[in-house]
Amino acid sequence: MAGPRLTDKQREELFAPLFKRVVADLAQLANGDSDVLWALRRKLAKELMYLERGTPMQRKLLKTMMWARQNRMCAILQQGLAAEELRARPNRHCARVRGKQRPARPSRVPH
Questions:
Q1: What is the DSSP track for the chain?
Q2: Any idea what the Cα angle at residue 70 is, between residues 56 and 3, rounded to 5°?
Q3: Which of 100, 82, 83 is CA-nearest to residue 91?
Q4: What is the C-alpha separation between 50 and 53, in angstroms, rounded?
Q5: pLDDT, tens digit (0-9, with 9 covering 90-100), for 32-83
């Protein structure tokens, strides 16, 4: 289900000036230091994501509560899961069982 979207007018009148101010503030705070600018952008993105999705601890608590409510059963397959499967991500377990395994993500290479 798609979330609400800004209209063209809202993007022009609300978002564009906000984004311009944020970019200018980041540049001013970094004072020409590209590493600080990168770190500020990264931290801002992370904090905005927490506003959207909640913190990792909040998501872990929600997952625990949902597992308890589902009696530790897969909501899709309606089957109990073994202890090692409970530690894994439930959606990946179901995808594997149903034959729709996601392709592996490329490993991160340290810079």
A1: -------HHHIIIIIHHHHHHHHHHHHHHHTT-HHHHHHHHHHHHHHHHHHHH--HHHHHHHHHHHHHHTTTB-TTT--B--HHHHHS-HHHHHHHHTT-PPPPPPPP---
A2: 50
A3: 100
A4: 5
A5: 999 999 999 999 999 999 998 888 899 899 888 888 888 877 777 777 766 5
